[in-house]
């Protein structure tokens, strides 16, 4: 992926336990050593707090807990690249670094709130690189249908043949245990895609929705219709 894409993100596997091996694995893949990153350690000391189960924890006293914490600051390091290009701090009040390997692999934590915070913090670095920095290029239209995928397959095949040459992809997604499935159109020609609303809604015997599941219902008629499909 690092060869084929200019921006790669990993999520998770950078904690203090034995199964957190993302740093080690990526370092091995690129033949890089792991080195204790002192700036990360300093930030960790400043912004992290010992768990309530570790009331006697001391950063200056060797212990299994300290060894485990310091695993999170052992980063893949390329001596030929400036440190500020390999380790990014994008949130002032977070000690968690974004380790960058091979110039384009960004190693992020798996904890959702941390991942989201760091991605948000990276926006000033990412947006200038995009052809469409406001994110208006890709447009997604969702349709909710009570029909089984097999019932809409023929129509979607003909629809795809018609609109995929215009750069619009047609998708179909079953929703197990739900009364309705989802059909999507994804592309960047908003005007044309909006013009297809009535046609597609009729073709899948459904309606356009803003988000998946917004028209879910427990109505027995719908449930029977799904079973019959």
UniProtKB/TrEMBL annotation:
Annotated region (Disordered), positions in chain: 203-229
Residue spans crossing the bilayer: none
Domain of life where this protein originates: Eukaryota
MoaB/Mog domain mapped to chain residues: 3-125
Organism, as annotated: Exophiala sideris
InterPro entries recorded: MoaB/Mog-like_dom_sf, MoaB/Mog_dom
The protein's name: MoaB/Mog domain-containing protein
């Amino acid at each position: 992926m690092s060869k084929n894409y200019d921006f790669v993100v990993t999520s998770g596997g950078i904690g203090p336990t034995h199964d957190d091996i993302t740093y080690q694995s990526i370092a091995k893949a690129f033949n890089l050593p792991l080195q204790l990153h002192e700036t990360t350690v300093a930030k960790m000391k400043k912004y992290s707090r010992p768990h309530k189960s570790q009331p006697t924890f001391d950063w200056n006293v060797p212990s299994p807990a300290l060894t485990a914490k310091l695993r999170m600051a052992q980063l893949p390091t390329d001596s030929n690249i400036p440190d500020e290009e390999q380790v990014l701090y994008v949130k002032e009040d977070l000690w968690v670094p974004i380790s960058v390997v091979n110039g384009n692999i960004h190693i992020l934590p798996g904890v959702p709130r941390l991942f989201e915070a760091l991605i948000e913090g990276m926006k000033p670095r990412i947006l200038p690189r995009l052809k469409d920095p406001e994110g208006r290029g890709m447009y997604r239209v969702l349709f909710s249908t009570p029909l089984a995928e097999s019932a809409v397959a023929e129509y979607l095949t003909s629809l795809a043949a018609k609109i995929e040459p215009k750069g619009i992809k047609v998708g179909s997604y079953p929703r197990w245990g739900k009364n309705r499935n989802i059909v999507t159109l994804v592309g960047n020609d908003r005007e044309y895609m909006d013009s297809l609303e009535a046609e597609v809604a009729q073709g899948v015997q459904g309606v356009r929705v803003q988000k998946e599941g917004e028209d879910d219902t427990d109505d027995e008629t719908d449930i029977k219709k799904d079973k019959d499909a």
